[in-house]
């Protein structure tokens, strides 16, 4: 294990917006991460959405989860503060994730994956089940899932709409168009700006497009045997996810043994950001069960 910055120990920051940027080498490539919360529990390792860097994790959710457990967030290879070139497959991202967990010296972890991160978390759990105690999958779907290979054609018009209306595309991609959805979008996007110091680098266009290729390939991939996932699993989504259609969450719940399913009404892809308090309480109850 080669650390470029020492891990936090008790006395680590109490809020995500003050967590130090750290780095660990995985097969010679530096992976950026932030690490907070007490060392009393199995650590929770989190993987985020397409194009996301460390500053795209919702600080309200991270802080809520980190009250009584260690929470580790990371950048994928080739994006944000991580080195190397962004992989073209989810499988490579999962291999990186397993290498990252090993490089931090963690024997057993809980995983939380949102969107693309949910694809990665599933693949890690299938490849290294001995390392995963519990699994949380949000706004995501299985390999070969309905509409996943269409994410580009869904996304581009709404990114253009964001440009034309001078609004962040997440208003349209992650949230419903109702008053509730748009209010939640504004609050979420404000939270993402709370960190003022040492912000992460944004994604390059090259990394963004390479990750899209990986997502499209996942959508066309043969289904995996999710019956092999024997660890407790919690699945959450909104009832109107246009990026990874909600039917995929129902499919995950059907195929993963004894999975728990939460569907939020009048919510989209970013349902957990629309209901951060409720999601944190459900996630903590699940992790502590």
Automatic annotation (TrEMBL):
<feature type="domain" description="AB hydrolase-1">
    <location>
        <begin position="43"/>
        <end position="276"/>
    </location>
</feature>
<dbReference type="InterPro" id="IPR029058">
    <property type="entry name" value="AB_hydrolase_fold"/>
</dbReference>
<dbReference type="GO" id="GO:0016787">
    <property type="term" value="F:hydrolase activity"/>
</dbReference>
<dbReference type="InterPro" id="IPR050471">
    <property type="entry name" value="AB_hydrolase"/>
</dbReference>
<dbReference type="Pfam" id="PF00561">
    <property type="entry name" value="Abhydrolase_1"/>
</dbReference>
<protein>
    <submittedName>
        <fullName>Alpha/beta hydrolase</fullName>
    </submittedName>
</protein>
<keyword id="KW-0378">Hydrolase</keyword>
<dbReference type="InterPro" id="IPR000073">
    <property type="entry name" value="AB_hydrolase_1"/>
</dbReference>
């Amino acid at each position: 294990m080669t650390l470029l910055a020492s891990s936090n120990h008790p006395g680590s920051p109490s809020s995500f917006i003050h967590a130090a940027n750290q780095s660990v080498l995985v097969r010679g490539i530096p992976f950026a991460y932030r690490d907070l919360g007490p060392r009393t529990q199995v650590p929770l390792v989190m993987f985020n959405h397409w194009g996301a860097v460390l500053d795209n994790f919702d600080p309200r959710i991270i802080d809520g989860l980190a009250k009584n457990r260690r929470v580790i967030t990371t950048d994928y290879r080739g994006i944000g503060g991580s080195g190397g070139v962004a992989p073209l497959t989810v499988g490579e991202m999962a291999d990186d994730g397993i290498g990252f967990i090993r490089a931090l010296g963690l024997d057993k972890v809980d995983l939380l994956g949102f969107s693309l991160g949910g694809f990665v978390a599933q693949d890690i759990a299938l490849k290294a089940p001995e390392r995963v105690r519990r699994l949380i999958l949000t706004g995501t779907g299985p390999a070969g899932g309905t509409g996943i290979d269409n994410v580009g054609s869904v996304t581009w018009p709404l990114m253009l709409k964001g440009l034309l209306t001078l609004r962040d595309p997440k208003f349209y991609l992650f949230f419903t168009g109702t008053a509730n959805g748009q209010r939640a979008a504004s609050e979420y996007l404000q939270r993402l700006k709370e960190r003022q110091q040492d912000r992460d680098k944004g994604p390059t266009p090259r990394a963004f497009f390479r990750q899209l290729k990986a997502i499209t390939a996942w959508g066309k991939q043969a289904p995996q045997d999710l019956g092999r996932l024997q660890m407790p699993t919690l699945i959450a989504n909104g009832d109107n996810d246009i990026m990874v259609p909600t039917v995929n969450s129902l499919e995950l719940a059907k195929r993963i043994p004894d999975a728990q399913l939460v569907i939020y009404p009048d919510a989209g892809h970013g349902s957990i950001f629309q209901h951060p308090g409720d999601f944190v309480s459900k996630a903590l109850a699940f992790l502590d069960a």
